[in-house]
Design goal:
- The complex is a heterodimer of chains A (101) and B (558).
- Chain A is globular.
- Chain A starts with a strand and ends in a 21-residue tail after the last helix.
- In chain A, strands 3-2-1-4 form a 4-stranded antiparallel β-sheet. Chain A has a two-stranded antiparallel sheet with strand order 5-6.
- Chain A is of the alpha+beta class and 101 residues long.
- Helix content of chain A is 25%, strand content 21%.
- Chain A has one domain.
- Chain A has 2 helices and 6 strands; from the N terminus they run βββαβββα.
- Chain B has 558 residues and is an alpha+beta fold.
- Chain B folds into 4 domains: 104 residues, Sulfite Reductase Hemoprotein, domain 2, CATH 3.90.480.20; 159 residues, Sulfite Reductase Hemoprotein, domain 1; 94 residues, Sulfite Reductase Hemoprotein, domain 2 (Alpha-Beta Complex), CATH 3.90.480; 145 residues, Sulfite Reductase Hemoprotein, domain 1 (2-Layer Sandwich), CATH 3.30.413.
- Helices cover 37% and strands 17% of the residues of chain B.
- Chain B is built from 19 helices and 21 strands.
- In chain B, a hairpin with a 5-residue loop joins strand 8 and strand 9.
- In chain B, helix 1 runs antiparallel to helix 4, helix 11 packs across helix 12 and helix 15 crosses helix 17.
- Classes of the chains: A alpha+beta (101), B alpha+beta (558).
- Chains A and B meet through helix 2 of A and helix 15 of B.
Chain lengths: 101, 558
């Protein structure tokens, strides 16, 4: 589950313990249906609480090294920043380099 | 140029104060996101993929040097040192922080600028011909009309909650550079047989998922009756436009569903009921507004500038720039320079704060302190002496703004697409960059001639793909970006919607397909003077269809 931070709109991921992390690697992943239902419950709660904006759930896969990779190009772009400005967004900090487009 | 009066100033300052309190309440948690969203949108603040995005209104695309310099300061102070010029002649910032926006709006208000009505279901920023007051084929400068509409429509209580957003464009010239036929209302200043000036009124044009060409509902509306007639149109739309379905809520759907004749009858009936004099602007007020747009004090100059001609003869790069990026000015010895914000391989319409400052300096020094933002996402210096063009060009070269491609195949309109936009289904900018790189050769661009490529990253069509001679629409096909190509679109006085050439293709196939389309055109055009759009009009789409076939299939077929 990702959302945008209220203060600056930056992409954040729902992580263990109910906190929001700027790192995709921290994202809590639902594997089973029960976990998916739990994530949806958390999404509704996050929406109601309003500490973040527009929480949504997206599909991810893991690569050979066990790292999270968003399934859809839109989520990859959210994880990295604009593909036309490599100097901006999370990619600028050298993070999420494992997410290839 | 228009200057705020005390009322304009008070409206803008009050809005900043209100929004400051609203942001505070949102951050404190006393406003929910659901409550806050419409408030931020009323101030042009969107939430995009990576950050907030702020859309700053540039009324009818006209700016002073001081305003452009302030935009540069704001881009540095609150954003990442650049901005994006849009197809509504506005400027968008891609990275403002929510808590900073009230201060940002206050800095904008210092130079008589704001973000009011750049979003929401209201009358949006009124656009106009970017060569207003310059073009020789002009009946009248459209900007006093646009400014009058701005004043009338700003915070208009009856029209602040329309069924959907509402866009108005005005042109005063024979050649339509404002795309009036694809606006909710398009106004063309015309002169009747009696020599009086009035408006030809088009209604129901638009792009998006249901593109339509506007219908003429009045061949000649006397100038003094404008606001009451607009009010009649808006009232019919406000009452009868659909509110049950967002995708059918624009006025174009209403006009289409009930038919042009019925729509005209409704508007005329409403118009007859209105108390015109209580709505229409006082002629004295019209004159007051028009005075702000009086031409600058031009010098009396010869039509031919010896120093300009000598510079062209001396420097082929300058000659190339002069051939493509200058527009004939109605005053002898002057020209309007289109500064291309489309360097080959760069995001179309993105300018750095340094470039904005250069443009501000050039406007102040050489162009009567005026700049125009074009709906093609470029910037115009509207009143430059031919004698000064070499100096302006030298400054543009230094700033990386000298690309000689105005109106050519690399002068591409592209929306922000999925690199920034939450609504996008595909990326637009990388497609534009790759096409531009493929056609980078200036000689080849000149050979191809005038050709507008317009790219949208979703069906909402901010990149105007429907009216591109070549239109490209990015969609999501089972999770992969896929691009549909249309041909034959025209935003001008012969407005036409492009027709789909065939099935969608992958991103990496687009530049090759465009190249084949262009090669086909070069092979079959009647003569070098026949523009791409005219060839498509003459021969139709069939000769271009093989361009979409995969290369292997072509080889096998050969």
């Amino acid at each position: 589950m990702s959302a945008n931070a209220l203060l600056d709109g930056a992409v954040v991921y729902y992580a263990a313990g109910g906190r929001w992390s700027p790192h995709l690697a921290d994202a809590l992943v639902a594997v089973t249906e029960a976990e998916a239902a739990g994530l949806e419950t958390a999404r509704l709660a996050a929406e109601a609480a309003g500490a973040v904006v527009e929480p949504e759930i997206a599909a991810v896969a893991t690569d050979d090294a066990g790292r999270l990779v968003p399934s859809h190009v839109r989520e990859k772009i959210r994880a990295l920043g604009p593909t036309v400005r490599r100097d901006l967004g999370p990619q600028a900090a050298g993070e999420h380099l494992h997410v290839s487009l | 140029m228009y200057r705020y009066d005390e009322f304009d100033e008070a409206v803008v300052r009050d809005r900043v104060t209100q929004f400051r309190a609203q942001v505070k309440r949102r951050l404190e948690g006393s406003l929910t996101e659901e409550e806050f969203t419409p408030l931020r949108l009323m101030n042009g603040l969107y939430l995009q993929l990576h950050a907030y995005m702020l859309r700053i209104a540039v009324p009818y695309g006209t700016l002073s040097g001081r305003q452009m310099r302030q935009l540069a300061m704001i881009a540095d102070k609150y954003d990442r040192g650049y901005g994006h010029f849009t197809t509504r002649q506005n400027l968008q910032l891609n990275w403002p922080k929510l808590a900073d926006v009230p201060d940002l709006l206050s800095d904008l208000a210092d130079v008589e600028m704001h973000c009011i009505q750049t979003s929401g279901n209201c009358i949006r920023n009124v656009t106009a011909d970017h060569f207003a007051g310059v073009a020789a084929d002009e009946v009248e400068d459209p900007r006093p009309t646009a400014e009058l509409i701005r004043q009338w429509s700003t915070l208009h209580p009856e029209f602040s909650f329309l069924p959907r957003k509402f866009k108005i464009a005005v042109t005063g010239a024979a050649r339509d550079r404002a795309a009036v036929a694809v606006h909710d209302i398009g106004l063309r200043l015309v002169r009747n047989d009696g020599g009086e000036i009035g408006y030809k009124v088009l209604v129901g044009g638009g792009l998006g998922r249901t593109p339509m060409i506007g219908k003429v509902i009045r061949e000649f509306l006397p100038r003094d009756e404008l606001l009451a007639f607009l009010e009649a149109i808006m009232r019919v739309y406000n009452l009868s436009g659909r509110r049950d379905n967002k995708y059918k809520a624009r006025i174009k759907i209403l006009v289409h569903e009930i038919g042009t004749d019925a729509f005209i009858a409704w508007v005329e009936e409403e118009y007859a009921k209105l108390d015109g004099p209580s709505v229409n602007a006082d002629p004295a007020e019209l004159a007051r507004i028009a005075a702000y747009f009086a031409p600058p004090a031009y010098e009396t100059l010869p039509a031919v500038s010896e120093s300009f001609e000598a510079a062209k003869a001396r420097d082929p790069d300058f000659a190339r720039f002069a051939a493509t990026n200058l527009f004939p000015h109605k005053v002898p010895g002057y020209t309007a320079i289109t500064v291309s914000v489309k360097p080959i391989g760069a995001p179309p319409g993105d300018a750095t704060s340094d470039q904005m400052r250069v443009l501000a300096d050039l406007a102040e020094r050489y162009s009567a302190d005026e700049l125009r933002i074009t709906h093609v996402q470029n910037v115009v210096l509207p009143h430059v002496r031919l004698d000064d063009v070499p100096a302006v060009w030298a400054a543009l070269v230094e700033a990386g703004l000298e690309t000689p491609n105005a109106g050519l195949i690399t002068d591409i309109i592209a929306c922000p697409g999925m690199d920034y936009c939450k609504l996008a289904t595909a990326r637009s900018i990388p497609i534009a960059q790759e096409i531009a790189k493929r056609f980078a050769d200036v000689e080849r661009q000149a050979l191809i001639g005038e050709l507008g490529i317009k790219i949208s990253g979703c069906i909402n069509a901010c990149g105007h793909h429907h009216v591109g001679a070549i239109g490209i629409l990015g969609l999501d096909k089972a999770g992969v970006e896929n691009y549909q190509i249309t041909l034959g679109g025209d935003p001008g006085e012969q407005a036409a919607l492009g027709q789909r050439l065939g099935p969608g293709i992958d991103a990496d196939a687009v530049p090759e397909a465009i190249e084949r389309i262009v090669d086909t055109y070069l092979e079959i055009r009647a003569d070098p003077g026949e523009a791409f759009i005219d060839t498509v009009r003459r021969v139709g789409l069939d000769p271009f269809k093989p361009a979409l076939q995969p290369t292997e299939a072509r080889l096998e077929a050969a």
